[in-house]
Amino acid sequence: MVKLIITAITLFPFLFAGEISASERPKGLEDRGPLTKITFIHHKKGMAKPEGIGKGNNISCYGFLGKGVYWKNNLPRTLYVNTESFTGLDSNFVLTAISNSAEEWDSAIVKDLYSTSIASASANWDDASPDGQSELVQSLYPDAGVIAVTNVWGYFAGPINTREIVDFDILFNSSFAWGDATSDSSKMDLANIATHELGHGWGLGDIYQSGCSLVTMYGYSTEGEISKRSLESADISGLTRLYY
User: Fold this and answer.
1) Rounded CA gap, 102 and 75, in Å?
2) pTM of the full predicted structure?
3) What letter does residue 214 receive in the DSSP assignment?
4) What H or E segment, with its residue span, contains residue 118?
5) Which of 22, 57, 156, 179 could form a disulfide with 187 if both were Cys (CB 3.0 to 4.6 A apart)?
6) What gap in Å lies between CA 172 and CA 30, rounded to an integer?
7) CA-CA-CA-CA torsion for 80, 83, 89, 95, nearest 10 degrees?
8) What is the pLDDT of residues 217-226, one digit of tens each?
9) Structure confidence at residue 224 (pLDDT)
């Protein structure tokens, strides 16, 4: 079952790198609630039925993590990629695919979302709490029907002007055979899935309406698919509404 899981981080006191304590925050920030995690689970087409929030609608074909929820600080982002964790894939291929995916979003609007991708053997998929680095790894996920999982941390409640994203991490499930689907349609295309997952990192939700099946943020994928590598007008419209 497709789930968007929202979890409040209860490890206190937790201070995200570069933040100040609640008592030191400017007036209004102290009531924005705890640091919270939203988890997006990306299923293979036909493996689960969607539920939860962030679905958008047939008219717009885009949706958000929440009203006023986007990056307000710490941009552009450096992506830390554990290239060694991608079984059977050349490190340069992995970095290039992910960099191209990030550039696809970055070039869609006149705002620097993305800086660079760096190979890092120490990059982990953080599930308990964020470390301030946006990390991408391949690892085994217990549900074989799940292609990828993205954790997005931020402040999603409280006054709208205090809401923001502060970190995200992406896991690519190693139970699938990954690669370049243009040369081998039996592979799960890395750039295709990375572009979709990075959309969550920037603040966009999943879309499940059949009339929106061609957009990058459509919530299902399968082997051989490459359509999510490039953005559709709805994806760009959603991103533009967030940041302008």
Assistant:
1) 13
2) 0.87
3) T
4) strand 114-119
5) 179
6) 35
7) 40
8) 999 999 999 9
9) 98
Separation of alpha carbons 95 and 119, rounded Å: 7
* Single-letter residue type at 23: S
The amino acid that residue 243 corresponds to is Y
CA gap 206, 200 in Å, rounded = 8
pLDDT of residue 200: 98
pLDDT (tens digit per residue) in 72-104: 999 999 999 999 999 999 999 999 999 999 999
Peptide bond preceding 13 in cis form (omega within 30 of 0): yes
46 phi-psi bin (left φ>0, alpha ψ -120 to 50, beta other): left
Please compute Rg for the chain using Cα positions. 17
Single-letter amino acid code for the residue at 45:
K
pLDDT in tens, 157-184: 989 999 999 999 999 999 999 999 999 9
Residue ranges of domains in the chain, CATH in brackets: 4-243 (3.40.390.10)
Report how far apart, in Å, the C-alpha atoms of 184 and of each of 179, 195, 230 are: 8, 19, 19
